[in-house]
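Anyone up for a design puzzle?
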């Protein structure tokens, strides 16, 4: 059974969605500031789209980051 892509029905590419959400999360920017930053890069999205993406994909990205962090922690050598 293959895993269905969560970005399947969105016209915007997954890279742009991930960039917008990460800009909003990582830096202390408002939704309108994220919209402006993306517009400077030639990407036209509204602040409402960024809000929707954050609500929809934010928890998925957080889980992915936590999983990658725990993977790195597991590879650290244990006390001997």
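Challenge accepted. My sequence:
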């Amino acid at each position: 059974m293959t895993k269905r892509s969560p970005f399947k029905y969105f016209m915007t590419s997954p890279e742009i969605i991930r960039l917008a959400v990460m800009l909003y999360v990582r830096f202390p920017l408002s939704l309108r500031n994220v919209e402006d930053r993306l517009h400077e890069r030639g990407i036209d999205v509204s602040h409402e789209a960024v809000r929707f993406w954050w609500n929809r994909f934010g928890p998925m990205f957080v889980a992915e980051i936590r999983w990658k962090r725990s993977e790195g922690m597991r590879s650290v050598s244990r006390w001997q």
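A detail worth pointing out: DSSP finds three helices and no strands in the chain.
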